TrEMBL record, chain A:
Superkingdom in the source lineage: Archaea
The protein, known as: Glutamate synthase alpha subunit C-terminal domain-containing protein
SUPFAM superfamilies found in the cross-reference section: Alpha subunit of glutamate synthase, C-terminal domain (SSF69336)
Any one GO MF annotation of this record: oxidoreductase activity
Residue ranges of every copy of the Glutamate synthase alpha subunit C-terminal domain listed in the record: 11-181
Species of origin: Methanofollis fontis
CDD domains registered for this protein in UniProt: arch_gltB
InterPro entries xref list: Archaeal_gltB, Glu_synth_asu_C, Glu_synth_asu_C_sf, Glu_synth_lsu_3
Pfam families attached to this UniProt entry: GXGXG
UniProtKB/TrEMBL annotation, chain B:
Cofactor: FMN
UniProt protein name: Archaeal glutamate synthase [NADPH]
Lineage: Archaea, Methanobacteriati, Methanobacteriota, Stenosarchaea group, Methanomicrobia
A matching Pfam family: Glu_synthase
Domain 4Fe-4S ferredoxin-type, chain residue ranges per copy: 10-39, 40-68
Annotated positions binding [4Fe-4S] cluster 2: C29, C48, C51, C54
InterPro entries: 4Fe4S_Fe-S-bd, 4Fe4S_Fe_S_CS, Aldolase_TIM, GltB, GltB_archl_type, Glu_synthdom
GO biological process, one term: glutamate biosynthetic process
Matching PROSITE patterns: 4FE4S_FER_1 (PS00198), 4FE4S_FER_2 (PS51379)
E.C. code: 1.4.1.13
């Protein structure tokens, strides 16, 4: 049984209350129709539930979320997956700035483009290894301050070198994979191009396949493509900056 | 090396007539000031930090410590500190890190503010026989209350009240993270806060399971690094605090070096062992006051609007306008941290030169919020250099609802303010993760000391209020007529909105 919620004219708090109440009642499939900018959908929501969002959700979609799968049929505003703990967000469109900010676990898939600061400060701990997969392109400061996890940028339809600046500034853990060449001048302080061996290719392959499953793409050319792998130059980017009093 | 070595800072002397060579000084000093040479203890004063552990542990009072007289040519501008900092940076080429609070010899404004006392016409109140109300609620208050009558004649409150924290005293303990301080130290603070009926902050290091029994007394912090932040952590706290800035280092982030991220710290911060824990200066999802409002509301949504949300900022030049913005962001309290706030580690140049005094900041914030008619919409917490009950009382009279104490609570547990917290070797078991040093701090005993301190100050605040003819803390809040400025210039009196002595 699918529970349908009509979000027309609904403020985010009553909308989220309805979603929470439904999850508490054991609902496993929820469809929210007519979403128009409501923020914080599934914020702090825990449990095994599949939520389909029809429309454009506002900021902080799935923030602090643990467990649910959220499918957005539309674009998303900024910071979907903010400090998310677990679960999956699939966006059939583009998303704004700070996508997957400080994400701690789970996966975010964006079919098209994302804004600035994607994957910023993503981190990992034990079995929690978050990933952000973007089908299109990203703006500057991708993977900035990254402390763990994987950012994968597929750049579908783009064949030139990636030229957005400030890639991975202050990165001290995790990896950024960008399909194709990356202008070396775009790498920020602390970031370094690392070799892409077979083990690393094997690591991103399931993410490519999963992306293609969601969005109906052919995985073969993406699996065979060349990627630039970017990681931290050091796990201690600031180790040499300070002296004691 | 061109600059050579600098003179020692402290001189340790052992009175050989009193010393019985028991070796406790050798065991107790983690900095290596004492060592055995054969059956005799010898001293290397250069290693001394003036932590006083050796003096406290010597059973024969045989150890004495003195600041070593400076043998530089005396100069009012080129002080010993100024010269030695240059030697250090000429050698290293690096930013100097320092611990604890501002060491500039600037006079505390608190000491130039004098409290009032009643005499004949409006007699003072004796707290021994009159009830004194020090209970403090932190959170939003409604601007008016609406009631309705039930058919059977009862009165119902129609106004929906937002969740508040209830404190038995206007004194809370500020945020000191597990990582910056030891688990035993945080546990002692938690026990102390629990015993005194008040709250303490987790800092930005997450919450260790050992603290769970005290979670109802904890304010959980969300800093830019989002360390240890998940929905369980948010729900455990009695309140949530967004840390934007800190008085000891306004405008910069936090950084716990990888070597301090041991297994337990890694678990509470939820990052791999040995990884640097970097909290950058800005929150990456806050680039405007509207973004801050969004984070406040996202935290409220995640916890179903059951928790008050605080926003902590450093006291800076435009603090009142910033606080006015925060008041409109759905936040329940604004914490203003003055430039004397302590820290485990901060660049010395920030610690000593950035920010403004809490006295001026709190007064400016209170006035601005009152002028804009939004003071009731938010509580104000003052922190950064609160040293005694008089400072607490003056901060409240200048407009704070409550204060956070930090260094004072550490001093209650033995801290000697030696300022070497960043070295991780704290001989009192406070700012260290070394198991043998951590074990020196007994959480039960030190928790009692912390609770005692808060009880004592609370009684003193109540006596000071009684002397001023005030029997409820609410009547003291922002009551500047109970203050007079002594030896303060006109500009400062205007900022504080306080009359000079005699007026």
């Amino acid at each position: 049984m699918v529970l349908r919620i009509d979000a027309t004219g609904l403020h985010y708090t009553p909308l989220n209350r309805q979603v929470r109440a439904a999850v508490r009642d054991g609902e496993t499939e929820i469809v929210i129709d007519n979403v128009l900018g409501q923020r914080f959908i599934a914020d702090g929501l825990c449990g095994e539930v599949r939520i389909t969002v029809n429309g454009v959700p506002g900021g902080d979609l799935g923030m602090f979320m643990r467990g649910p799968t959220v499918i957005v049929n539309g674009n998303a505003d900024h910071a979907p997956g903010n400090t998310m703990d677990g679960g999956t967000i699939i966006i059939h469109g583009s998303a704004g700035d700070a996508v997957a900010h400080s994400m701690r676990g789970g996966r975010v898939f964006v079919r098209d483009d994302i804004g600035y600061r994607g994957g910023i400060h993503m981190k990992e701990y034990e079995e929690k290894r978050p990933c952000l997969v973007v089908g299109g392109s990203a703006r500057s400061y991708l993977g900035e301050y990254m402390a763990g996890g994987i950012v994968l940028l597929l750049r579908l339809g783009d064949t030139g070198p990636f030229v957005e600046r400030g890639i991975a500034s202050g990165i001290h853990g995790g990896e950024v994979y960008i399909r194709g060449e990356v202008d070396p001048g775009c790498l920020a302080i602390g970031a370094k191009v690392l070799p892409l061996d077979e083990e690393r290719r094997a690591r991103i392959r399931p993410l490519i396949e999963e992306f293609c499953r969601y969005f109906g793409e052919d995985p073969a050319p993406l699996i065979a493509a060349d990627y630039t792998r970017i990681g931290p130059a050091s796990a201690r980017p600031f180790a040499g900056k300070y002296v004691w009093e | 090396m061109a600059v050579g070595s600098v003179p020692l800072r402290y001189r340790i002397t052992i009175d050989r007539d009193r010393c019985m060579e028991c070796g406790r000084c050798v065991e107790n000093c983690p900095y290596g000031t004492f060592r055995w040479e054969g059956d005799r203890i010898v001293v290397d004063s250069r290693n001394c930090t003036a932590c006083h552990r050796c003096i406290a542990m010597c059973p024969r009072d045989a150890i004495s410590l003195a600041e070593y007289p400076c043998d530089y040519r005396s100069h009012p501008l080129w002080t010993r500190d100024a010269r030695e900092a240059i030697y250090n940076q000429a050698r290293s080429g690096k930013i100097i890190l320092a611990g604890m609070g501002n060491v500039q010899p600037l006079p505390p404004i608190f000491d130039s503010l004098l409290l009032d006392a009643c005499q004949v016409t409006n007699p003072s109140i004796d707290p021994l026989r009159e009830p004194m109300e020090l209970r403090t609620y932190i959170g939003k208050k409604p601007s008016k209350l609406e009631f309705s009558r039930t058919p059977d004649g009862d009165v119902d409150l129609r106004t929906e009240l937002t969740p508040n924290l209830m404190l038995e005293t206007p004194i809370m303990i500020g945020h000191m993270s597990y990582g910056a301080i030891s688990l035993n130290a945080q546990l002692a603070l938690a026990k102390g806060a629990h015993g005194a009926g008040t709250f303490l902050g987790t800092g930005e290091g997450g919450m260790h399971p050992a603290i769970f029994p005290y979670q109802d007394n904890m304010i959980v912090q969300v800093a830019s690094g989002r360390f240890g932040v998940d929905v369980d952590y948010l729900n455990r706290g009695a309140a949530i605090e967004i840390k934007i800035g800190q008085g000891a280092k306004p405008g910069i982030g936090g950084h716990l070096p990888g070597e301090k991220v041991c297994a337990d710290v890694s678990c509470t911060r939820m990052i791999p062992m040995g990884s640097d824990a970097i909290s950058p200066a800005p929150h990456h999802d806050i680039y405007s006051i509207e973004d801050l409002a969004q984070l406040v509301r996202s935290l409220k949504e995640a916890t179903e609007w059951k928790k008050p949300v605080f926003v902590k900022i450093a006291a800076v030049h435009n603090v009142a306008a910033i606080a006015a913005g925060i008041a409109r962001s759905s936040a329940d309290a604004v914490v203003v941290d003055g430039f004397r706030g302590g820290t485990g580690a901060a660049p010395k140049v920030f610690r000593d030169h950035v920010g403004i005094p809490i006295e001026a900041a709190i007064s400016a914030v209170d006035q601005k919020l009152r002028n804009q008619g939004v003071r009731n919409e938010i509580s104000v917490v003052a922190s950064g250099g609160i040293r005694n009950a008089a400072d607490v009382t003056k901060a409240i009279a200048l407009g704070a609802d409550a204060v956070y104490i930090g260094t004072a609570a550490l001093v209650a547990m033995g801290c000697r303010v030696c300022g070497n917290c960043y070295r991780g070797l704290c001989p009192w078991g406070i700012a260290t993760q070394r198991p043998d040093l951590v074990a020196r701090l007994d959480p039960e005993k030190e928790g009692e000391h912390v609770a005692n301190l808060i009880h004592a100050w609370t009684m003193e605040v109540s006596e000071l209020m009684g002397a001023a003819g005030i029997n409820a803390i609410e009547s003291l809040r922002g009551n500047r007529d109970r203050l007079r400025g002594y030896l303060l210039d006109e500009g400062m009196l205007k900022v504080l909105d306080v009359k000079p002595v005699g007026a």
